[in-house]
Amino acid sequence: MPVVSTPSSLRPADSALDNEEALRIRNDFPILQQEVNGRPLVYLDSGATSQNPTCVMEAEQEFYEQRNSAVHRGAHSLAVAATDVFEDARQTVAGFINAGTDELVWTSNATEGINLVAYAFSNASLGRGGEAAERFRLGPADEIVVTEMEHHANLIPWQELAFRTGATLRFIPVDDDGGLRLDEAERIIGPRTRILAFTHASNVLGTINPVDQLTALAHRHGALVLLDACQSVPHMPVDVKALDVDFAVFSGHKMLGPTGIGALYGRRELLNALPPFLTGGSMITTVTMEKAEYLPAPQRFEAGTQRISQAMALATAVNYLRETGMERIHAWEAQLGERLVAGLEQIPGVRVLGPKAGVERIGLAAFDVEGVHSHDVGQFLDDKGIAVRVGHHCAQPLHRRLGLVSTTRASTYLYNTTDDVDAFLEAVAGVRPFFGVSS
């Protein structure tokens, strides 16, 4: 695998990330150097898609210039080189979350990873997989549990699984502030629960959920746990072994990587017992006209031509994050998130969702501006060169529970500064006066 370039002028790994270093890091991201509507771009939408450093873009280009070939299929030199970098990338990304190399399955994104698990459960419920897949089989006596704060990607696949198997889908509700009702979790998760799926960090609320507590509760009843780690793996140290989850998913495009690549982590013994979801070439050992036998994980879930250049680029992104320091990134974003929330709470007519200032959260904040639709807020901010997310953020049930249709969300990353946050807050303070609804 090619040498990965190091972030610009890194300080020692134990020093705190600060504005000065964030500005140097920003130099590694060409897209952040531009102006939007005649103003310097302030990018506060990394919760949806992060930007790419030059080294990530160069890694993907280098693959196509020097190594482009199919993996696991050819004996010629290019095919061997492509296979080597593909599997080296798997080792790098697996190590980033403390998973075994054979415990990481490449997917297009986290959504595909969740669907893979849900459809594998469905196939097991049809009798596929034999005795080894018995623990994945669902029927009318079984329950699937999610939470009321889930992204649609971690809700709809389970709705469909319940429909296909007759199982009951239940959810842990949130309180009026958006916090999980852990007392209700104790009541809902029980002997009939077969799988609990929940988000590590909410993409709307910024809440960091108690993974250890929820996982221990599910395991006490023999249930499996799937963790949506889309908003945690890019922003904080994540050790899937320490968290004791059975499955976890995340997406490359939220962690400095390219689009079209994500990963599913699964315990080795579980992945090898799960019936395949997608089938075809490269995931089999023996095929006759009547049946097929499948490779062990992870190849049993990687049918067809794979995401080779994207995997290589994601590994480069992981090295960039590791070299910067995940603890440092998490601490910096916590400061930015605190600044976001504290500032928004001081603006008349603005309601911030999720934990109040002073309570731990990831570096994002979703909010409602009284009397102004979120799309209008977003357009007002865009006119000032500030990029944010507007809408329901693929979490309609959560918004409905909190009495809202949509919100505006600002989300930070390692390349943001306090100046970015302050420019955003100054702009938000001008929204209601501009639309004539100030009190």
UniProtKB/TrEMBL annotation:
PROSITE patterns: AA_TRANSFER_CLASS_5. Its cofactor is pyridoxal 5'-phosphate. Residues 42-424 form the Aminotransferase class V domain. Its EC number is 2.8.1.7. GO terms for biological process: cysteine metabolic process. InterPro entries: Aminotrans_V_dom, Aminotrans_V_PyrdxlP_BS, Cys_dSase_SufS, PyrdxlP-dep_Trfase, PyrdxlP-dep_Trfase_major, PyrdxlP-dep_Trfase_small. Gene3D superfamilies: Aspartate Aminotransferase, domain 1 (3.90.1150.10), Type I PLP-dependent aspartate aminotransferase-like (Major domain) (3.40.640.10). It comes from the Bacteria. It is an enzyme of class 2 (transferase). Keywords: Pyridoxal phosphate, Transferase. It catalyses: (sulfur carrier)-H + L-cysteine = (sulfur carrier)-SH + L-alanine. It holds the Pfam family Aminotran_5. One of its GO terms (molecular function) is cysteine desulfurase activity. Catalyzes the removal of elemental sulfur and selenium atoms from L-cysteine, L-cystine, L-selenocysteine, and L-selenocystine to produce L-alanine. Belongs to the class-V pyridoxal-phosphate-dependent aminotransferase family. Csd subfamily. PANTHER family: CYSTEINE DESULFURASE, CYSTEINE DESULFURASE 1, CHLOROPLASTIC. This is Cysteine desulfurase. It comes from Arthrobacter saudimassiliensis. The lineage of its organism: Bacteria, Bacillati, Actinomycetota, Actinomycetes, Micrococcales. The gene is csd.
